[in-house]
Specification:
2 domains, 219 residues, Arc Repressor Mutant, subunit A, elongated, single chain, 13% strand, alpha/beta
Length: 219
């Protein structure tokens, strides 16, 4: 029998969604939101201070994304379970989250009861995924090794879009040229480049290019 409510930290870079979900979870019995964060790096500090039972983690965030934050949290605080709650339905994001140590994965269309169920299951040491995601996981492993090639790509911590941007950076393209090539807004490219630098732990464009070319990108 659990002594007290499940202690939860919410991590999402959209304050309206984050605060709304916090209010929703706090309104019920059995869950106490003990902290919130707006990016992965902030989440590490909040989790270290609050020592929650469960972290509800978004994926696409500035500074440090949810996959990297999950990897660090599960390594440093193994008693804390992570439930990923995201808009991303991409197989790559799903499997990277699992590899990082997430024990739950829900899409943001999930209702309150589903989120509470996931938090409760993970707090008790279980693993939970939405029905459609569970089916895709089963299909993935049933298909055998041929399906796993995508996970062996360089820099698995990057999203497909970020890897695409890095490939063009390694080819010597400027941000404006990348924006034109990929039909993206210049601000979007700048955000992607900043995220790439953070995830690869590089200081500047030149260092990113060296890392990328060593991995075979930019050719």
């Amino acid at each position: 029998m659990r002594d007290g409510p499940i202690r939860v930290v919410l991590v999402d870079d959209h304050p309206v969604y984050r605060d709304g979900l916090a209010a929703l979870l706090d309104s019920g019995d059995g869950i106490a939101v003990v902290g919130t964060a707006g990016d992965g790096r902030e989440a590490l500090a909040v989790v270290a201070a609050a020592r929650p039972d469960v972290v509800v983690m978004d994926v696409q965030m500035p500074v440090m994304d949810g996959v990297e934050a999950t990897r660090r949290i599960t390594a440093s605080t193994p008693g804390t379970g992570v439930v990923v709650l995201t808009m991303s339905e991409e197989d790559e994001t799903l499997f990277l989250a699992i590899q990082a140590g997430a024990r739950g994965y829900l899409l943001k269309g999930a209702n309150q009861a589903q989120i509470v169920q996931a938090i409760s299951a993970v707090a008790q040491g279980g693993v939970i995924f939405g029905p459609a995601l569970a089916r895709r996981i089963a299909d993935f492993f049933a298909a055998g090794p041929a399906r796993t090639g995508g996970l062996d790509e360089p820099f698995p911590q990057l999203t497909p879009r970020e890897r695409e941007v890095l490939d063009l950076v390694a080819a010597g393209r400027s941000n404006s040229q990348i924006a034109s090539t990929l039909y993206l807004a210049p601000k979007t490219v700048r955000n992607n480049v900043s995220a790439i630098f953070a995830k690869l732990h590089v200081a500047d464009r030149a260092e990113a290019i060296v890392r990328a070319r060593d991995a075979g990108l930019g050719r």
